[in-house]
Amino acid sequence: MLSKINTAVSFIQHLYAPKPQVGIVLGSGLGSFTSEIVVEKEILYSDIPHFPISTVEGHSGKLIFGELGGKKVVAMAGRFHFYEGYGTDEVVFPIRVMKFLGIETLLVSNAAGGTNKHWKVGDLMIIKDHISQFTPNPLVGKNLTEFGPRFPDMSEPYKKVLIDKAKQIAATKNIFLREGVYFGVTGPTFETRAEYKMIELLGGDAVGMSTVQEVIAAVHMGLPVFAMSVITDIGIRDEENTITHDEVLQAAKDAEPKLTYIFAALIAQL
């Protein structure tokens, strides 16, 4: 794994020498965020040695290097999911590559289903914590000390100082924010009504098929993380309606300008 990462990093550095300070992971329907970046280099995942390839609609599949808020950034336009058939090492491979490229902070976004009855479609939720027992842990197996310790502490996976900054930024523009617990699942099926109810009872405010494995790998490597979900559907509901991926993408697109503003302003303050 370490050899593969070093090979990928060397390949990227040959094409783009500057060291990025911030890594950004863009979720379903949130790819337009990259228009805010002063792009200096784009590299297709398919060109990078050992890099997985995104197979999900709404994920374009490239690394974008450039400048945003006065900082050098690298953005993942498209992420990888366990449900695509990738192993956990492959899901978190780009996070490890970005760390080895030099990033000092990781920002993560995703589309998530709301399980809190008081929330609505289009809400933005700062992730203050997550529940990961329902997804395979990417650190299972031999621990590489080059990545981090055998038993990393997860008492603060999402940095409070970054959460506080984001709240202050949102307040200046009267952007309403939720704050809650993200419940990670494997997918690719959307949850049953009974599963939505279980997630709510266990303390999850939102549920999704990404993020937790990426965050675990980032924390393992000592990266401060800030993450935000766009609530694209409400799982607990009385009416007999269903959820489609198209609806998820549209809800994410509608909320994207607010998320983009918060991410860009937060990066400028790092």
Number of domains: 1
Per CATH, the superfamily is Nucleoside phosphorylase domain
User: What structural class do you assign from the helix and strand content?
Assistant: alpha/beta
Number of β-strand runs:
9
Could you spell the SSE succession in H and E letters?
Answer: HEEEEHHEEHEHEHEH
The main β sheet shows up as: 5 strands, mixed, barrel
CATH secondary-structure class:
Alpha Beta
Largest sheet, spatial ordering of strands: 5-8-7-6-9
From the spread of the alpha carbons, the general shape counts as globular
Instruction: Please bin the fraction of helical residues.
Output: 25-40%
CATH third-level topology: Rossmann fold
CATH architecture: 3-Layer(aba) Sandwich
Spans where pLDDT lies below 50 across 5 or more residues: none
